[in-house]
Design a protein that fits this description.
Shape: globular
Order of helices and strands: HEEEEEEEEEEEEEEEEEEEEE
Largest sheet: 10 strands, parallel
CATH class: Mainly Beta
Number of strands: 21
Number of domains: 1
Distance between the termini: 54 Å
Radius of gyration: 18 Å
CATH superfamily: Hexapeptide repeat proteins
Structural class: mainly beta
Bound molecules: coenzyme A
Helix content: 10-25%
């Protein structure tokens, strides 16, 4: 009996989600799966077959490629810039992508990753909160794997095929196919 109830509940959720998608987006995006309490605010452009988990917030000028999976509780906020995420990427739980960020195709972003493509000004004698944001921008190539709890600092370019070890802080550019770990992240190996 409980089993049947579960099946009915799933079918009911699918129908509601399908109707919500039609109501919110027309039939603009094929295969779109939106979780509960998802907020898409501003100029958010999705491609086909995108999945966005519960409680995600996507705000500003953000474009998301085909077959991207965004796990629950991810925040992607571009203001006052733009964020682009290529196709076939996965962004895991609780990660944040903020500021000016460009991510290639086929990237894996583990849980609790923070990618911040902006900095506060830090001149003396003015409150930091009152200083202008600077935005150099972060560029992440194709096929990059970013380990859990990593932070990527503004201005950094991460080459194609690189691996960033769990808990790293990336402060400098990373050559393609490097494996980097630590704080600050340093090359330990190359993918060969
Ligand atoms: C980066 C990583 C892929 C390296 O794996 P590997 O190629 O097998 O590397 P090794 O285990 O041989 O480690 C090489 C050296 O780096 C060190 N190292 C590995 N990962 C590290 C990390 N995250 N932080 C600090 N040092 C690390 C090792 O201790 C070793 O040091 P040593 O040569 O002094 O002994 C792996 O350690 C890692 O961090 N994976 C991410 C896991 C994750 O976040 N998963 C989320 C699921 S999406």
């Amino acid at each position: 009996m409980l089993f049947l109830l579960d099946i009915f509940r799933r079918i009911y959720r699918r129908i509601i989600s399908f109707l919500m998608n039609i109501f919110c987006f027309g039939l603009k995006y094929k295969g779109l799966r939106l979780g509960k309490r998802v907020k898409l605010v501003g100029k958010v452009t999705l491609s086909d077959h995108v999945t966005i988990g519960d409680d995600c917030l996507i705000r500003g000028s953000v474009s998301i490629g085909e077959n991207v999976i965004i796990a629950p509780n991810v925040e992607i906020r571009s203001t006052p810039s733009a964020i682009g995420i290529g196709g076939d990427c996965t962004i895991n739980r609780n990660s944040m992508i903020i500021g000016k960020v460009l991510i290639g195709n086929h990237c894996l972003i583990a849980p609790n990753v923070v990618i911040v493509g902006s900095n506060h000004g830090i001149e003396k004698n003015i409150l930091i909160r009152n200083q202008k944001l600077t935005l150099k921008g972060i560029v992440i190539g194709d096929d990059v794997w970013i380990g859990a709890n990593t932070t990527i600092i503004d201005g950094v370019k991460i080459g194609d095929g690189s691996v960033i070890g769990a808990g790293s802080v990336v402060t400098k550019d990373i050559e393609p196919y490097s494996i980097v770990v630590g704080v600050p992240a340093k090359i330990v190996k190359s993918r060969s």
